[in-house]
Amino acid sequence: MQNIKVCMKVGIITWCCYHNFGTFLQAYALQSFLRKNGYDVELLNDYQYSVKQPLSLKIRIAIKEYIKYFFFPKLFKSVKKDRESGNLYEAFKKKYLHVDYQVASLYDVNQRYDAFVCGSDQIWNPGGFKRNGNEFYFASFASKPKIAYAPSIGVKSIPSECKERFSELISDFSFISVREKTAVNAMKEVTEKPIEVVVDPTLLIDRKDWFKLIDNDLNKQQDKYLFLYLLTNNQGYISAAYNYAQLHNLKVRVVKACGVNLHIDEAEPAGPLEFLNMIASASYVMTDSFHAAIFSLIYNKEFVVFKRFKDNDVASQNSRVENLLGKVGLKERLIDENHLEFIDALTDIDFGQVDHLIKREIQDSQQYLINALKIVQNERS
User: Could you read off the pLDDT of 178-202 as tens digits, one per residue?
Assistant: First the structure.
């Protein structure tokens, strides 16, 4: 795409405070793509609208931490690693994310920007309707043009009690796109507006841009290793990873997801850069994470994705992984607890074919977003 300088200020509304690798990296990618195409872009600080712990809970957690520190030092290691990871996240945010922190007055925010892009990640998950401030992620305060780029609703259907309000909140969007095909049918129950399916923002920028972010000096380990990243403590999956590594003469490196204790002593604290580097340098990746799967594709790494949810779970988020793997012809890479023995029988991934299958969709998604912004800009001219 041509680098054309345009005079348009765009505010991105997404999660940018929650310490999750995919959350930070999708925000970085969307911001980078729009800046590369000439837009003046900032992420709106969502701290006061995101999931926060009440003070009473924070006090209880602090007391438990002190108890762990004095009586159960091994358990306290997990908390300490979360703090180390948190520092790495904040360093990444300071260096790479352009965040607008002046959001106390949403009226003023509306005046400062020419348009708003809502997405990606699960900012439209209906579970958020139980939380005060969730309507911020729909830019409900804005009178300027609004574009939804790849927000995920996370589930296969919108609960009946949320449908009316959901319909109201998206009624004034100029363009709506979602990340999963399953979300289209769910959204059609609350709107007659056209809905497009687009790729996750992490795929909007080139592979070479992701390689530029990581520094090989971050990873001094020369041994070949299996990279394990899990968001749920599933002992079956952990055992499968260690068994595979032993069989193939690989070490295991485990990254510490914030708030998740796998009870693995060697789990390493990490921020977004360390996460990227560990995938880029791995011989094999095992994960239950959507974004770890995406970066395995970006960095051309052999991988499997473990199912995090049961198929009959109403809160299942498996659809986003199923959708991703379906696009690139790798559905067999999604493994549940009953088929772990299939892992060693998988044939090597043809990444040339993967790139071919996803290339057109990436181009279409890039064009969709730029065209949407051009149209709303012309309408305001």
Answer: 998 889 999 999 999 999 999 999 9
